From TrEMBL:
Family in the record: Belongs to the MND1 family.
Keyword line: Coiled coil, DNA recombination, Meiosis, Nucleus
Boundaries of every Mnd1 HTH domain copy: 16-75
Superkingdom field: Eukaryota
Segments forming a coiled coil: 100-147
Principal place of residence: nucleus
Originating organism: Galdieria partita
Entry protein name: Meiotic nuclear division protein 1 homolog
Segments crossing the lipid bilayer: none
Length: 204
C-alpha cells in the first residue's frame, strides 16, 4: 500500500484561508495551531509558516490585541483585495499599452526620416566608383609588379591617391552615421540597412 502523500504548500495555504472565510471570525496563532490540524489536516509545525505567507501576501490581515496577535480574513475583505489587485493590474496594463504606442510612433517617425536623398545617392555612387577604381588599380598593380619600375611607381602613386580618397569617403560615412545616431538615436545597423552601406565597410 502506497504512503499517503502530504499536502503541498499551496494546498495548505488554500485550506488555511478556508478556516477564515468559513468561520468569519478572528484567531490567534495558538487557536489556529489547534484548529488547522484537526479541521484541515495541516500539520502543526507548518501552521505558523503557512499563516505568515498569507499575511506577507496581504491575503490575511493581522493586528496586535494586547499581548497577542489576532488574524482574520472576512469574505468581503478578500473580495475587496481582489478588486484592488485587478485595478492595479489593469492600470499597469494601460501604462504599458500607452508606452507601446509611443514607441511605435517613435519608430514610424524615425523611418520617415530615412528617405532617399540626392546626397545619399551621390555618396553611395562615389563609394562604389572608388571601390571599382581601387579594384582595377590592384589588378594592374599585380600585372606590372614585376615589370617596368616607372610604370609600377606611377600605379602605386595613383593607387595611393585612390586609397586616400576611399578612406576619406569611408570616414565621411562613419561621421554621418555617428551624427545620425546622436541626433535621432538610430542604431548603426539600421543606418547601414537604410542607406545601403555594406556591413563589412571599413578603412582600407
Amino acid at each position: 500500500m502506497s504512503k499517503k502523500k502530504g499536502l503541498s504548500f499551496d494546498d495548505k495555504r488554500t485550506r488555511m484561508l478556508e478556516i477564515f472565510t468559513e468561520s468569519k471570525t478572528f484567531f490567534t496563532l495558538k487557536e489556529l495551531e489547534k484548529v488547522a490540524p484537526k479541521q484541515k489536516g495541516i500539520v502543526l509545525p507548518s501552521v505558523k509558516e503557512v499563516l505568515q505567507s498569507l499575511v506577507d501576501d496581504d491575503v490575511v490581515s493581522s493586528d496586535k490585541c494586547g499581548t497577542q496577535t489576532v488574524y482574520w480574513c472576512l469574505p468581503s475583505q478578500a473580495v475587496q483585495k481582489k478588486r484592488c489587485k485587478i485595478a492595479s493590474l489593469t492600470e499597469n496594463l494601460q501604462t504599458k499599452y500607452v508606452l507601446r504606442q509611443q514607441l511605435l510612433q517613435r519608430r514610424d517617425e524615425l523611418r520617415s526620416c530615412h528617405q532617399d536623398t540626392e546626397e545619399r545617392i551621390q555618396l553611395i555612387e562615389k563609394v562604389n566608383e572608388l571601390e571599382s577604381q581601387l579594384k582595377m588599380l590592384k589588378e594592374q598593380l599585380d600585372i606590372y609588379k614585376e615589370s617596368d619600375p616607372e610604370v609600377l611607381a606611377e600605379i602605386r602613386s595613383v593607387s595611393h591617391i585612390a586609397w586616400e580618397a576611399a578612406n576619406r569617403w569611408t570616414d565621411n560615412i562613419f561621421s554621418i552615421r555617428s551624427w545620425v545616431a546622436s541626433k535621432f538615436g538610430l542604431p548603426s545597423s539600421e543606418f547601414d540597412k537604410n542607406f545601403g552601406i555594406p556591413e563589412d565597410l571599413d578603412y582600407i
